[in-house]
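Board notes (copied after class):
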Amino acid sequence: MQNKIQSAPTIFYPESDGKPMAETEVHRDLMIDFIQILKDYFINEDVCVSGNMFMYYEEGDPKKSVAPDVFVVCGIEKKQRRIYRIWEEGRSPDFILEVASPSTFPDDIGPKKDLYESVLKVKEYFIYDPLGQVVPSFIGYRLIDSVYHEIDFVDGRLLSTILGLELGEYMGELRLYDPEKTEWLKSRIERVQEAEIRANNAENALAKALAEIERLKRD
């Protein structure tokens, strides 16, 4: 009697743990805004920008996972992902930002930092507390010879060589600064507001032009 060949069990990699996306609206809004600004900035490049997504780093072991608040991976296809499996993508993140709070900071500055440095080899790692409840509330690391070195502040900002941008506080919020254009990147809301202003100005200019044409006709 022949033995039945049993297939290997399917390994399930969860997409969620049921926990809230962020501790406060401030943390959540910062994560969402940062991800969207970076997506818009890299819209024409092969760069994956995401966050709050389970990232699995050891095939066959769903427990070996982490969920960075914001991460950037250069040189891979831009597509919708439900989870990120490093062995399938072929690349670890190049940039990670963790939005910290008193409850997450010990993990952000300890085990996560060790994981990003020694296992995932993340080239740049930033930690920022939008409410200023932890010390340091803003710090960045760059991987040099497999060891994290703290990034120095210049004009109150931290340079990300991966992004080609600087991270700093602007009007009380963490924002991205373009050193080449010497300007802060605008959020999508700010760009929408500017577009609305331009549209209103154009509408007013058209109305004035039409009124002038009618006046000339009467004359």
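Comment from the instructor: The chain has two domains: 25-185, 187-219. The mean pLDDT is 90.
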